[in-house]
Amino acid sequence: MISKKLITLGTLAATVLVLGACNGDKKESKDSSSDSKTETSMSSSVDAVSGASISDKPEVIEKALSKDGNWIVAATADLTFDKDVTVAGEFHDKGEASGDIYRKLALYAQNSDKKVTAEYTVTVPQLIVETENFNIVNGTVKGDILVKANGFVLNGTKVEGNVTFEKEEYKTSATLDKEGAEITGETTVQ
Fold first, then answer.
1. Collapsing DSSP states into helix, strand and coil, what is residue 38?
2. What pLDDT score does 134 carry?
3. What is the C-alpha to C-alpha distance for residues 4 and 187, in angstroms, rounded to an integer?
4. Of 143, 104, 127, 92, nearest to 18 (Cα)?
5. 174-189, pLDDT tens digit by residue?
6. Strand ranges (DSSP E) for 20-129?
7. The pairing of beta strand 187-189 with beta strand 175-178
8. Which secondary structure element, helix H or strand E, spans residue 187, and what is its range?
């Protein structure tokens, strides 16, 4: 009985830390008023759990990034995909229809002081981004990224591969160097 309670408390504590990771980077949103709402929503709302997908399993993260997934997706370990992964669908900040179009992939964990304590690597042949305002925060993407939407953001993320934009418009609307983000390959337009 005691060990079940400890496991449950441990799982709850880990979930709170990961949810904290999902909101810890308040700088990535274009609307600063949205940033403070994200912090409050993620740290105090039970709805945040249903609005986020948090996992260390590639199949869970792949589904969460699909058109039937969530507005915020967080990896809790390094992930390897043996096929291309597509980020699809229209999502809104905090999962609310009235929120700005926005989606986030968090590749890090943080402590209660919002200090990043771990960063994760996603290894994928190609990440295909079809979702507008998709933001990858921290961590590393090993593989190529093909962007087919406006507003793509790399926020503290390292890409070990190429970033290709389907149109010049998508490249122009992108932010590829936020918080020290870097791309080791080429950045081009198809």
1. helix
2. 98
3. 50
4. 104
5. 999 999 999 999 999 9
6. 52-55, 72-75, 79-80, 85-87, 103-106, 108-110, 116-119, 121-129
7. unpaired
8. strand 187-189
